[in-house]
Amino acid sequence: MALARFNFRTLFAKWAINTAALLIVVKTVKGLNVTQTGLDGILTLAAAAAIIGLINTFIKPFIILLTLPINVISFGLFTLVINGVIFVMAGLLVKGFEVTSFWGAVIGSLLYSLISMVAGWLVVSPENRGIKTEYRIID
Hints:
The protein is mainly alpha-helical. It has one domain (15-125). It is built from six helices and two strands; from the N terminus they run αβααααβα. It has helices spanning 8-28, 38-58, 60-66, 68-73, 78-93, 102-123, and strands spanning 32-34, 97-99. A two-stranded antiparallel sheet has the order 1-2. α1 packs across α6 (102-123), α2 (38-58) crosses α5 and α5 crosses α6. The chain starts with 7 loop residues before the first helix and ends in a 16-residue tail after the last helix.
């Protein structure tokens, strides 16, 4: 029997990591901008990171399924374009997060994924990395 436990601390840590990753991406990649400064800018980045996470969770699987033939033909490289579209969608949904270049969005999404993946490995503890599985022997 596998038991899944939801941990708000882990969720908040991953959200903070994604917000920091988005800050690094916005500061380094041309074509991605945050119009606010200070605390408003951080809140804008946090909202954009949340929107990107929600889109990746709920909408991206359907987009991947619909574009499966193109993904197969391109050996999965079309997924980079899909990730860029997700950044553009987040730019449309979050006021203050601007995407002015599609290729900037593609490069930014790639960098965002790499930074958040590495930081997630470093920050989130091993026991909170996924579903905890407990096995019970039934007599």
